[in-house]
Amino acid sequence: xxxxxxxxxxxxxxxxxxxxxxxxxxxxxxxxxxxxxxxxxxxxxxxxxxxxxxxxxxxxxxxxxxxxxxxxxxxxxxxxxxxxxxxxxxxxxxxxxxxxxxxxxxxxxxxxxxxxxxxxxxxxxxxxxxxxxxxxxxxxxxxxxxxxxxxxxxxxxxxxxxxxxxxxxxxxxxxxxxxxxxxxxxxxxxxxxxxxxxxxxxxxxxxxxxxxxxxxxxxxxx
Length: 222
What we know:
- By secondary structure, this protein is mainly alpha-helical.
- The protein has eleven helices and no strands.
- It has helices spanning about 20-40, 40-50, 55-60, 65-85, 95-110, 115-125, 130-145, 155-175, 180-195, 195-200, 205-220.
- The N and C termini lie far apart (about 40 Å).
């Protein structure tokens, strides 16, 4: 790929600089500007690549799965921004940790409001549901780790499944009903998390995934 780089484009550094990662972020920056009008599509990805200085083939080499790759990059960017905005969890009770973590995550997503709406609509499509669930799981895992969770038994998985549902529902409400509704939903669901052992006893994995799917559906149709 280095042979095809334009003269004014920085080449991969021999010192180990993550050139590909930086290039992906440049394309993502372009996508955030283009997605509100063009949607989360392959034509948008190619246009974002062109805006970042890449040819069509270079963009496809960098992001072989196109909009799926960019969807994952945006979710990880929002995860990173949320974690960077959070305080030292050691000074907070667990309820406050979870509340702040979820609010920080949806604040990060809503900072790119217009693009996030198209991103969430793309992820709500049935074909993309496995990707949506995977990204939600990763976000929930990052937030639980920040909160200090060290569970290695079945609680590890149950907590992340539950928080995935909370994240999906809170983001859907924030995007389509506003912050007050999102916070009311979050506060009600935190009560569930605090009563975790009792609540999970009557909750199946199918129930949790069904709730996540319903939240994603709201993102698509509202």
